[in-house]
Amino acid sequence: MSDWRDLELDEITEWPLLPQLLVIVILCFVVQGMGYWFWIKPMIQDIEQLKQKELSLKSTVKYKYNQVAAMPKMENQLNELNLRYEFLAQQLPAQKELASMLSGINQVGIQNKLTFTRIDWGERQNKAFLYKLPLNIELTGQYHDIGSFSEAMADLPRIVSLENIDMQRVSTESSTLHFRVMAYTYQFKGKE
């Protein structure tokens, strides 16, 4: 043991073989430890970050690939929606068609043997992208004639919905009914 204490570092070349090998092994471990800590460990961290970035980019590419693959289907759906939109837009009356529409509804009532006591436009209601146009209708006639009139209204080339329907007998002895209804049609704001 006293041999180990007597060894001087500046005389390392003259040391016995075993202490020289021990110092070399210790220096190798220190160099390897420092190399790992200062060079390899940062590289491993960089590699992990690059792996995460690769996964993120792969998922982005997969998402975009799926979007591109779905593009023809979405274009077909968009074309179909545009056709439906155009079809529905054609069913909404323009301002200049409102008078002829009123005349058409009057004609449908006459064809179904009904007598109008009132038919006029109410005040236009402003909605998000269209106007709701109320039509006050009051008429008298037989029950089945009123049903045929309602059916004929649904077959008109323009959209007309019936709401707030009220039917009452004209008198207790009569089978004639007094029919009140609020009919609505719609108009795009751009079609005034």
From TrEMBL:
It holds the Pfam family PilO. Keywords: Membrane, Transmembrane, Transmembrane helix. GO terms for biological process: type IV pilus assembly; type IV pilus-dependent motility. It comes from the Bacteria. The keyword Membrane applies. The chain crosses the membrane at residues 20-39. This is Fimbrial protein. The lineage of its organism: Bacteria, Pseudomonadati, Pseudomonadota, Gammaproteobacteria, Vibrionales.
